[in-house]
Amino acid sequence: MITVSARPYAFSLDPAHVALVVIDMQRDFIEPGGFGAVLGNDVSRLTAIIPSVAALLSLFRGQKLPVLHTREAHRPDLSDCPPAKRLRGTPGLRIGDEGAMGRILIAGEPGNQIVPELAPLPGEMVIDKPGKGMFWATDLHETLSAKGITQLVFAGVTTEVCVQTSMREANDRGYECLLIEEATESYFPEFKASAIEMIVAQGGIVGWAARLQDLETAFA
Ligand code: TIU
């Protein structure tokens, strides 16, 4: 076991049963012209965490620990996109519409690719998920269970939407979850801060949070 300084208390990381999960670091959320932008967000905040996520990926790859990437992605025929999701709000473009990086949030389109700096390596898991949470309508729990993975270290975007939803889903399925603070971001800084506090409150009701440096120190 490796002890990681964390909140609300130290995280006992088990290298034999841990995986890194990088949530939705796809161009749709990180670059102008994608889903994040058409929802009215300034996407530049999210670009800033790419070096921290890259450092976290290097740490796991260097230790030969498993890595999982997710993408929020819908089928081209939109059969996995509920109208309640597609018709929500008044965005300039909706899911499935043609945007600056191809069809918005559709699997296989340029905007749906993970940013090149964080591209998955051969052998790393890549899960397309139609929901905000990574277990909804995916076979991920079976995949992780088959590999004996019981702990998940989280990074990615956005903190209070897909990251927190995925952490909550994972927590209910019995995984121990650790969020790396510099490797996650929100379009709204106050939401990021609040989401982290919600996760670690009440003795870690959803999980733990740690600084990247604390994880690097623990592995050194
Ligand atoms: N809009 C927003 O903050 N997030 C999403 O729509 N998806 C993810 O968080 N990936």
TrEMBL record:
Keywords: Hydrolase
Keyword Hydrolase: yes
Isochorismatase-like domain ranges (all copies): 19-206
GO MF, one example: hydrolase activity
Pfam hit, one: Isochorismatase
UniProt protein name: Cysteine hydrolase
Species this protein is from: Aquibium carbonis
